[in-house]
Amino acid sequence: MSVRTETLLWLAQRLSAMLLGVFVLVHLVTILYAMHGGLTAQEILSRTQGNIGWAIFYVLFVLAIAVHAPIGLRNVLTEWLHVRGRAADVLLTTLAVILSVWGLRAVWAVFAQ
Amino acid sequence: MSDTPMIQVRVWRGTEEGELRAYEVPRRPSQTVLDVVTYIQRELDETLSYRFACRVGMCGSCAMNVNGVARWTCRTHVDKVLGGAKGPLELAPLRNMPVVKDLVCDMRGFFDKWAKARGYFEPTATRRDDFARVSPESKQRRLAEAGIECIGCGVCYASCDVVTWRPDYLGPAALNRAWTLVNDPRDGAQRARLQAVAGDGGCHACHTHVSCTERCPKGIAPTASIAGLKRATAMAALKGDV
């Protein structure tokens, strides 16, 4: 992999980490706040379905994870297991796709009307 | 002589394979760890191999592992390591480098990485040009100043866990040197240097453990230099310069 791509991957992981820091905090605080008086699945869905703002928030959340996690795992594979090269990169790109599809499917299920 | 307090010293003898051998060395005021090694070599066992030159913290030759910590032995007092204790003072060659014999390690890989990181000045001026003018107050000069006093002792390299688990990592000393040159406006190999320190085994492999900064006897912060390289290479990558 080219030096430029390696460097951009590093940058992408740092930037996605910054986003995730904010996303995780907002996510957890919102859950704690919303759950305060007890909540059913039906009540949650009545609030989320059709809520464009939160839908965008979670789409970005999922994409940040799909960028962040595979790059981190790539570093773990390189440093600890000495696995590198094309096979590892294909595997991790696949993981990024799986995480995206999985997450976006969940977003669709919760926010679609 | 029987009243003289003694230090219990254990010294690595051998190559990669070997053992710690015990010696007793009389304790003296203001005694350095290098004094202890020299005493063993001159008075107790002339077959002991170790490396030193200036004895005053300038040359970077005498670094060793002292009770598990890499130190410059000529400027490390026994009192600082042992406090009031009699020992043991455990001396071993630096980590992360092959052992030649006893306390001498092979620093070729360490210095080869300086070259690999393009840690050398590439002039752009000729003898017909006027002197370059670099203001001592300029930002670049101050950034270079922070890392320029490195004596190449290898303490940071021996203390770095990333070097241990990833032998192709350039390491703190080479990257610190590269950073001082990235901040040298007279240098003509900026792009090639950023290329050399980015990517696999380069500055991005640093985990910011800060062991190098913690251990550097010259008080340099290679971690900060490496962070500077990370930013510089990231900017260059965005612009398509690396």
Give structural notes.
Helices cover 84% and strands 0% of the residues of chain A. In chain A, α1 crosses α3 and α3 packs antiparallel against α4 (86-111). Chain A has a single domain (3-111), classed as Fumarate reductase/succinate dehydrogenase, transmembrane subunit (3 helical TM bundles of succinate and fumarate reductases). The relative contact order of chain A is 0.13. Chain A is an all-alpha fold. Chain B is of the alpha+beta class and 242 residues long. Chain B folds into 2 domains: 6-105, Beta-grasp domain (Ubiquitin-like (UB roll), Roll), CATH 3.10.20.30; 108-239, Alpha-helical ferredoxin (Fumarate Reductase Iron-sulfur Protein, Chain B, domain 2, Orthogonal Bundle). Chain B has helices spanning 33-44, 78-82, 108-116, 139-147, 155-159, 161-165, 172-182, 190-197, 211-215, 222-239; strands at 6-14, 18-26, 63-66, 69-72, 89-92, 99-101, 104-105. In chain B, the strands form 2 sheets. Chain B has a 5-stranded mixed β-sheet. In chain B, strands 6-7 form a two-stranded antiparallel ribbon. The longest helix of chain B is centred in the C-terminal third of the chain and has 18 residues, at 222-239. Chain B is elongated. The relative contact order of chain B is 0.13. The A-B interface holds A 1-4, 6-8, 10-11, 78-80, 84 and B 162, 165-166, 195, 198-200, 202, 204-205, 230, 233-234, 236-238, 240, 242.
